[in-house]
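Consider the following assembly input.
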Amino acid sequence: MNDRSIAQILVGIDSNTVLSGARQIKTKLITELSRQGLSEEVKVIETGSIGPTNQGVVLGVFPGGELYANITEDEVEEFIQERFVKGRTYKKRLLAETLPEELRLQEYDSRKTQYYGRIVLDNCGRINPEDITEYIGVGGYEALGYVLKEKSPQEIISIVQDSGLRGRGGAGFPTGLKWSFTFREKRYPKYVICNADEGEPGTFKDRLIMEGDPHKIIEAMAIAGYAVEAETGYIYIRGEYKLSLERLQKAIAQAKEMGFLGNNIFGSDFNFDLQLKIGAGSYVCGEETALLSSLEGYRGEPRLKPPYPAQYGLKQQPTLINNVETLANIPAIILNGSQWFRHFGTENMPGTKVYTVLGHINRPGLIEVPIGITLREIIYDYAGGISSGKFKMAQIGGTAGDILPEQLLDVPLECQSLQELGHNLGSGALLIMNGTVSVADFLRSCMKFFVHESCGKCSVCRIGTSYLYEACDRLNRKEGYVDELKNMKDIATTLKLTAFCPLGQSVAQPVLSALKYFEEELKEGSNPNKKGKLPTREKSEGVFYYS
Amino acid sequence: MGLKIEINNIPLEVEKGTTILQAARKVGINIPTLCYLEGLQNPGSCRVCVVEVEGANALQPACVTEVNEGMKIRTNNKRVRNARKIILELLLSSHPWECNTCDRNQSCELQTLAEEYGIREVRFQSTQEKLPLDESTPGIVRDPNKCILCRRCVAVCQEIQKVGTLGPRYRGFHTVISPGQVDLLGDAVCVQCGQCAAVCPVGAISERDDTEKVWEALEDPQKYVIVQTAPAIRAALGECFNLPPGTLVKGRMVAALRRLGFDKVFDTNFGADLTIVEEGHELLSRLKKKLVDEDKTVKLPMFTSCSPGWINYMENFYPELRDNVSTCKSPQQMFGAVAKTYFADEIGIRKEDMVVVSIMPCTAKKFECNRPEMVDSGVQDVDYVLTTRELGKMIKQAGLDFVNLPEEEMDAPLGISTGAADIFANTGGVMEAALRTVYEIVTGKELPFEKLHVTPVQGLEGVKEAELTIKETLPDWKFLEGVTLKVAVAHGLGNANKIVESILKGEREYHFIEIMACPGGCIGGGGQPRLTTDEVRKARIQAIYKEDEGRKLRKSHENPALKELYNEFLGQPLGEKSHQLLHTHYFDKKNKKEKEKVKV
């Protein structure tokens, strides 16, 4: 390569920044550099999400590692002038944080900036996701080559088991155990599925991982395939994730060309083929058995467990299903060992967690932090504090997540401590809300989502969500029935106890936690003179069924 | 090796694979169910069967959860009862409160559970769109507002019948069970078998109620109203009056029909005997053309044509088999055509003034009688079809004390029949009846089986086969000497599909095949008293064989009224008059134009 550049501009191109004109800015940067005669010296590199979201187009500049956000097309000329001709920072759009120079950290550094201690996102925003050589350049596919040459499936599974990695999709099931269950089954073919049907509102970490580092998922799936003796993999991806899809498609084609997918990978007798399957946008298809139904071409509805997918999964064959983020941890664990991984996070739940932090905070965006740090640390150390007003509540884990009040700001975000309080860590969305948000109104919008997304299979979820929505709506209008809160609690408890699938059960979380911590506020919406009445049916003309 | 478990502190040992529900029933513990249907892949979707399993956070559905060694189960503590109550409240909150005016009032499983669980108020309110009734087919009416989405109908339509018409559509609260992606059953491919109506726990799917039309005809002094009752009714009608399944109520049924005001009480059995004679000769004629004349246009195997659900299925899915199906009309339609010609002439009534009512175990018969080609008498051959359930209602409306009615006899001549006609009700029955006649025509001797039963084709196995080598033939039938007649029987359209596919693929060869659309045959029809389980099927089947064995005449060709009919009116089997009145043809309903032409 005759790259003689002395400086690089990283342009974070993900589905958010694309909407802010990242592609146009990239073109403008290239033309402007060439106009200034700097094309040789300064190279423009397209990469995935650099981190900050909701801040327009984000650029990173090396050497130096400074970050610029909200840059507009008109400012590009001035930016090039200032930064590369005059050689000083472009203060107008400069962010406080910087990108570190080294690309991979072997030891956990406790300095609290989101760019240290990254495992999952270590390449996101650093390399060009559309170029396999960049991934290889930072050690990509090394782990795959290593396991194929040096390790047996059992050894890989015990590494993953020893690392203590747990599923990052929401349920937190030990990943190594899941792998061993699938390995144990001796019926072939077996399948490996990457669950990329990220449907939880407010969660888009998987999307940014796939957009920023698609090869990592491919490598991890091949490793998983080797470990559980599967030769076919599917990535079940949301149809809306267009950019992820494009980049994965490109990455799969490149990996095939380089021989990382296909037959006799690294000269071994291991064959692995990977296909993309596009979901149609149903929330329930993120539930693993519903995903299987959808993948087989049936209506996306959960199936009965047991039998679990490890025994009877896709086409009734043994199947391993892992979330995107879970898989993204695998190559680093293989290369650095399980003990290294245990440096991060807590004893019970080692590693890091990728969160999308949103709401009334100063720096919304994608962060990767060690598991076990508190909500307070995330809000004030990583997200720059509350943007206006005072902290009121946070919903952790997406729309099906718990609503936590101020007094829980110091609870470690980790399975066990949360479970002791009856809460779940969920999928990785943190929605921070200030005093302007009404609990009833917020719950109403959560429930509206579930009314829309309940699959309709089991009676409790189908009817329960609808009642909960209507109840929240009444409370929000201050027209709640006299026994509204009790009824809501009864329904939510029943949902948790009896809904068919984990998604239906999780609908109870926001309701029960809101009732627990914000009962007084919710009570204000209930009118003591108002009683419920018998169901009514309104005759509709013209419109046949709902569509 | 058994698994040791405890249910409500009662220790018991059960086999691996037993569900909690099955285990509980063994020790006399009842767990409520709504979506559960014995023997099917249950969806586990209604959730009313939840129980507490020690060690599990959530409650578990008893109908689909298999027991494990050492499992400790609680079926009746506060947590479980509360959850069930709330689920029932939720179901009731989105269900129209029209119990008093519902077809299923007092026979509704949701209503029964609400009563059992002492639901005295429904705290939850939900508003939803009122959906229009689906009255687009002659046999079946669907009220999506009453549907509780238990999916029993989906299970029978897809798993048992393999027709796959009904399925869930849309999501969440807006989910409806609909025929494919269209709103109306009439716009989809539905064979009208009514198995969905037979399993619906509430009033969401039922037969079209034709009782008012029949009452009206009975009141009309201008009309001469005769009734025919299918063989399967006599073994099931008693269940409408809390008699145990399998009680033979033929005599009381005749008495009841007479008291309802029918001018003559006749028997579809007469039509069944007629069918056997015609169909038996048709089979022999096909065999002769094939074996002696080597006529390539003649198709074998020959399929029976009694079951209108099967005919609909064949026309829609396998129209290429049209020439394989016997041209004989079903017994119901043969009866209608004969009644409005031969019998009307005999008693001097204009056929326009005669009303033929059928009592059938079947919803597809409502479709069949309305087929545009079923008018060979010059008017519609059969006017109204009532299901067993509808007749039960009429008897109740008339204030008849059914259980204590005297036993009465059918009227002559169209009420005279043989035991061969009785067994039409059972799967394998048409085959057995046909063999009794065909064998005797060919050899001059009685079918050489104990009590004339062809045991291999009896019972509830899905697909049954038998072989019969013909020996010592009469001179006319020499070509059949030593021929081994291969026959098969299937009941339930899923099983029919298996046979048809194996024939089309050339894996199997038969001469004659009996197909009944409903599991168990007509005794398990879509119009029979609810709920038809295998146990109920067996009881009804036994009753029918008992009825047959108690008869003096057990072979269709021995029916004296039939002999008279041939002598005086029809001439001979497969003769010109038979052709005109008793035989039909089928349509290719894959062909949209042809389907539209014969739409009912």
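The CA atoms of residues 8 and 62 of chain A lie 5 Å apart. Ask yourself how this observation constrains the way the partners meet.
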